Amino acid sequence: MRLLLLFSIFLFSCQSYKSLHQKAIVVDTHNDVLSSATMKGLNIENDLTGKTHSDIARFKKGGVDAQIFSIFCNERFGKDTAYKFANIEIDSLYAIVARNPDKMMMVTNPLQLQQAIAQKKLACLMGVEGGHMIEDNLSYLDAFYKRGVRYMTLTWNNSTSWATSALDETTKKDSLVHKGLNAFGKNIVKRMNSLGMMVDISHVGEQTFWDAINTTTKPVIASHSCVYNFNPVFRNLKDEQIKAIGKNGGVIHLNFFSLFLDSTFQKKADKYSALYKREIDSLTILKWAGYEIEGYLLAKYPEAAKNLKPPLSLLIDHIDYIVRLIGVDHVGLGSDFDGISSAPKELKDVTAMPLITKALLKRGYSKADVRKILGENFIRVFTANTVNGL
Fold first, then answer.
1. Is residue 57 assigned to a domain?
2. What is the pLDDT of residue 297?
3. Do residues 227 and 325 touch, judged by C-beta distance below 8 A?
4. Which among 205, 97, 89 is positioned nearest to 149, based on CA atoms?
């Protein structure tokens, strides 16, 4: 009798979190599948299990209602190449959506987002990851907006002529010509505000962060960042930055990358890399980027990589920390799937998103608060940034 009761409780719990996840609006603010898969010849209309974290069917299975697709190219792209490449990625998403009108819908405003959800279609939004893609040209920023881009990360790891990145402010601080936003950079933030494009402060240096916070008149987002106090890496947000985002009315969307979540990950990863030094050296000679080499090794040696991954509970710890510091209205999810080489053990791909809902309920969050974290907080900031409903 006791076993039957326990099983009934377990079954109810499973049904409860699955039902909540299904009914909630689930928004992921950062996914790199366009640059990491589509631009390399893979088609997310097919089953890409084992090759990517994401494809159309798995977005559905994971209960994702709205996905912001990252428009990304790295520092190898510059003047006359970055903007063009970004537009090819944008073209690719439009083409995919056009071929799947029963499953997907391009979205540029909150009303369209609600329409897509009502029609049970994946709401597809876009964010440019790296200000270098506007090539110091405000008309390119305007053009991105007209094409549907609704956030821009002011920098990626590489700085621009008008903004310094977290990586550069950390590793090149003595050689930087300027630090933070210059006058042109502040004009870009103001232009984003007037257009209705969200300012994304993930990846930016501390000085750039403060300059952006002090310039913007709209709530900002961190589309894929974590907590510095848990793990002091250059990409994570310090307490004063977190508090400033709360005061600004913005939202921090947690990144699933093991390196940003787990303070012990780098040491374990270094030991792991030492085992494959010869391959790493060979790929370095071929001018592979560090993150590309890391992804290659983790895919080639998955069993060895398995022990590197932190538990899902650590992601929830980061969420808890921000909630305690500035409240539940300022937290969301920005997985960085298909842009990261390692995520918590339980989060094998986008189909595992319901496990976050389960973990939040287990941690004691109310259903109302879970709905905020899953997507409602983002929708509030999206709405606050939207100009004239467009």
1. yes
2. 81
3. no
4. 89
Domain interval for residue 159: 20-259+311-385
Residue 326 lies in a domain: yes
Q: Is residue 9 in some structural domain?
A: no
Q: Please name the residues in contact with 302: beta carbons below 8 A apart, sequence gap of 6 or more.
A: none
Which long-range contacts does 11-18 make (Cβ < 8 Å, 24+ apart)? Answer: 14/358, 16/361, 17/354, 17/357, 17/358, 17/361, 18/354, 18/357
Same domain, yes or no: 118 and 193:
yes
Write out pLDDT tens, residues 291-334: 678 778 877 887 777 788 999 999 999 999 999 999 999 999 99
pLDDT on residue 187: 98
Angle at 68 between CA 67 and CA 71, to 5 degrees: 140
From CA 135, how far away is CA 188, in angstroms rounded? 12
Is 253 within 8 Å of 30 (Cβ atoms)? yes
The pLDDT score that the predictor gives to residue 220 is 99
Closest CA to 361 of 14, 17, 19, 7: 17
pLDDT tens for 340-382 read 989 999 999 999 999 999 999 999 999 999 999 999 999 999 9
Please give the model's pTM, rounded to 2 decimal places: 0.92
How is residue 351 annotated by DSSP?
G
Q: How many CB atoms lie within 10 A of CB 167?
A: 19
Q: How far apart are CA 20 and CA 361, in angstroms?
A: 10
The percent helix, strand, coil of the chain (3-state, each to 5) is 50, 15, 35
- Say whether 30 sits in a helix, a strand or coil: strand
- Classify residue 124 by its DSSP letter: E
Residue found under tokens 């921090």: 252
Pair (37, 73) in one structural domain: yes
Q: How many helices (H) and strands (E) does the chain have?
A: 19, 9
Same domain, 113 and 228: yes
The DSSP-derived string for 234-300 is TTSBPHHHHHHHHHHT-EEEEP--HHHH-TTHHHHHHHHHHTTHHHHHHHHHTT--HHHHHHHHHHH
Q: What is the CATH number of the domain that holds 349?
A: 3.20.20.140
For the chain, how many residues are written? 390
**Residues of the chain predicted below pLDDT 50:** 3-12
**Residues 375 and 269 both lie in one domain:** no
Residues 315 and 279 in one domain: no
In a domain, 1, yes or no: no
Same structural domain, 60 and 103: yes
